[in-house]
Design a protein that fits this description.
The structure is a homotetramer of 302-residue chains. By secondary structure, the first copy, chain A, is an alpha/beta fold. Chain A has one domain: Rossmann fold. Helix content of chain A is 39%, strand content 22%. The first copy, chain A, has 12 helices and 9 strands. In chain A, strands 1, 2, 3, 4, 5, 6, 7, 8 and 9 form a 9-stranded mixed β-sheet that branches. In chain A, β1 and β2 form a beta hairpin. In chain A, α3 packs across α12 and α4 crosses α12. Chain A is globular. In chain A, 54% of the residues are buried. Chains in contact: A-B, A-C, B-D, C-D.
């Protein structure tokens, strides 16, 4: 009966957990978990294999890799290098098998709002090579990246007046990248996941993701190119926090009472709010660096 | 019996309201309200006149002026000019009666965390005059500001390793301003107050204010100078949101149950979180400009 | 015989002056000057009316309005409002006569290099309306802007790996604005013009403009839309400074000697350098605000 | 006869070279050079040992280490790690021999002017530990930094109205660090040195250094603490560029003519200008990271 009030999560892992709580097995969804004790990294791969599985999970068919590492928010440079390598490995796996010649990295989100600045910051730290390879050829790159890497920070609708999708489609039409990698800040359901989880998926970035309102999905259907989505949960919806706190209390109420109660509690104004940790500046700065390093490494290996 | 769980607010106005809800009159606290219909500005002056009043309110003795204007978050430049003028009037009133020759404006908070960037942004937009007047005399200022205005953005402890108070005390010892004006982002109790309320007080800025952890108070006692505090609530504590939502539910519980319940609900991690609106970048940018204009106007009138 | 070494200027006004120095009248080029004593604003309108005039001037046919005001670099808010109005008037004049329904403002340049941040900063301060009008209709805008205003900061090639032109063309194809307004930092020939001159032209922005390397022109031909260019000179090429200083000395040399000398002096590394004033942060911040206000006013009058 | 026009350089290395050009040996100045072929790093140690040497060099007595590496401006992370280690070694050498318990790192310059942002950016990337060690003791730092590191970005006079020295003195009086490390952007004489040279000195930072106007010296005399200065030349004075270009031409003139000529050429406005490379954003970002890593390493070794 949970879920009459719509709890939002951008993490497939959390969507899955909601069912586990209730001991439900979801047909069409396969899950593999792995734990690297040395590095204290949990990796979960959720594969949504059927249309039915997609419907139940509320997420498109595809592969969702989640890397969880409690130390991700700690400023240990060597450890972050490990995470970058782990990430690079998963990105390479999700890339199309045939030769990738060019990649466009899209930094979604609002540079001006700290927890939403992840995507823009990742693009800032990338090794951009497309213009160099186009002008001088791959030879000048030596042992370095051979892929033509381009990057864009489209901004959010309040800044541009345009849908992010419109801008990205326009840029793709002109520059025809083989693959698009979209990086975004996500909303998690649980504060425990904030800033210590990276999700990598071959389904792109889909509606309602992130802190702001990046409306339509960036996926193979809308962009006519393979789209890999990389996300880090940096916020929880304010409504979710309240909902979670009340969950047990609500158990004592009848369904109808509960619904009325929630409608009253979760005010529209609360939907315009997000919850984020006080040290979000540090963690976003560090994680964006970890992710751009992961991409830089992946592009050398392709 | 509310208040066994400590709800935090930096607004004297909200401290007062908590008592009104319970029809309690507080001795030693005088309140005047005023409404300007033309400009749709509510002004409330709370004077805490006795030690007893201070204890009950949980705020130091002094005058707390609150300007509330729903349109403060709207990008109407003419309207913001009105707010700036209103603000300037109150600042001039709270300044010491004897001639003020020099003012240090302190921009508290973390420039890197959007809702905490208010103070730093205000200082960025000020007309700084101290160095000019010291070098060329007041004559060069013509009809402009005659007060020596200096400004500093001390940063937060995670960035500097020092207490904000240590830095400010050091700067004051060297430069001896007559008055300190400290600008900070505040925590409100209610999301309705966010980004549409300005509090001006002659008691300075006191413990626990703001988004981050600016530990000790900036007040006449610690700084050996008159201190005016200007604050705008830009966040609500995450714990407060939860508390408020649960308040009515809690009514059905016994006191002991309630206490246990809250202890469990309001987890320590929640205390490291804040709630803020998604468009906080726009409103902080606009309000910081409104406040610095208010200060610029006030300094011309002194 | 000047001009064997190519001196670069983005200002039509300066291109014209080079001929005046030598008492040459240029066929196909009409110049009108005007001086507003009250506001101390010089306005020069240079019309390049023939292909021949264009060739001689080294600039495309069209109208180039230059506003010069020595006080532009002074922080007087009322004065800047006057400049904004003056600017708005010229923009409205250069807009197509038929109804303009939608405008895309492009902020060219590199947000990370102070004198090149003008364009990005202008877009930051614009009233963006396209998404609001598309969702709610013009009615909600009341007496405010009725034009659908969108804005984009494409970044520079080193950041994106893409030509600015590719990005803009893509965005225009998707969003079909009636008019494009491109704002850019320019290179002047003389340090005296820096940060106190605004050029408005209906020819767009053309090769070699700005601090960085925004390669191909943004004009009606490349963008399939009317393009208005707005520019402020914020830098002088380092090579120009040297050239100017040596000009008189060079007079004593034979042409061949002079050429050899210049080839040696103006080293390639000098071409990778620019000259800019030490207070460029203040003036760029202020002027970008003045220009965005000018645009905001213009869009209300269309 | 050179030097009648005062050419400014903040690099002891360049001050020395001026004499070498004229085959002059300077008494009281000892120079050691070293070249690491593997890493392509030139290291020059200039020791000014007598008052006479100081006068001739125009720099205070002390040790000036210069690291030159052409690849410093290249985005090769491994190479930058090497530079960081090299730098760390020199810093440790220049630190007082007795136990250093606390260090204050001062990031001089203007965060808003790209080539002057080096100092502020270095502080942004430091591991700040003072507040942690003061609260929890050294035990919590494990194998990490045991020194109490604090940091401050005082801003420039146009932003604060105060002398940088006033602010630093104030902060030092309150927090009593054993050593101050001041990081600043420097002016070089030659464009060839820009962004590929680091100077480390135990004399602090002295008048006229940097892009802006940081007036009085930060040294043991003014701060009552050991001061290490770390600087990277990121600009050349505009006047210097012109002077250098004209130098040979001037040889043909009589001394008096030459002087008159220079007075005319090097206009005051030119003194308000600086020359910097177009890609200064990239190199300052990278070098500030290299330097903060160097400091982080040094603080672990103390």
């Amino acid at each position: 009966m949970l879920g009459t009030y719509k709890i939002r999560t951008d993490l497939a892992l959390e969507a899955k957990e909601r069912f586990e709580e209730r001991d439900v097995e979801i047909r069409g969804v396969v899950v593999h978990e792995q734990y690297n004790q040395d590095k204290d990294i949990h990796t979960t791969v959720v594969k949504i294999e059927t249309e039915n599985g997609a419907k139940t999970m509320g997420k498109p068919q595809g592969t969702y890799v989640t890397i969880e590492a409690p130390n991700m928010s700690v400023p240990d440079e060597d450890y972050h290098r490990e995470i970058s390598k782990e990430l690079a490995g998963h990105i390479v796996q999700l890339l199309p098998k045939k030769k990738v010649e060019s990649v466009l990295v899209v930094g979604l989100g609002n540079r001006q709002v700290t927890p939403d600045a992840l995507g823009p910051r990742v693009v800032e730290n990338l090794h951009i090579t497309r213009h160099i390879i186009r002008e001088y050829g791959k030879e000048v790159m030596e042992d370095d990246t051979q892929v033509m890497v381009s990057g864009i920070v489209p901004g959010v609708m309040a800044q541009t007046g345009m849908e992010t999708l419109e801008i990205i489609q326009g840029v793709i039409n002109e520059t025809k990248p083989d693959v698009v990698i979209a990086v975004d800040a996500l909303a998690a359901r649980s504060t425990k996941r904030l800033n210590r989880t990276i999700q990598i998926t071959n389904t792109g970035i889909n509606p309602g993701s992130g802190v702001g309102n990046h409306r339509q999905g960036l996926n193979e259907e809308t962009l006519q190119a393979k789209v890999i989505g990389i996300g880090v949960p940096t916020v929880v919806d304010a409504a979710t926090i309240v909902y979670d706190a009340m969950e047990h209390l609500l158990d004592v109420l009848e369904e109808q009472e509960r619904k009325e109660f929630l409608d009253e509690m979760i005010t529209p104004s609360l939907n315009q709010m997000f919850v984020t940790p006080k040290d979000v500046d540090d963690t976003v700065k560090r994680l964006s660096f970890t992710i751009s390093e992961g991409l830089n490494i992946a592009f050398q290996e392709v």
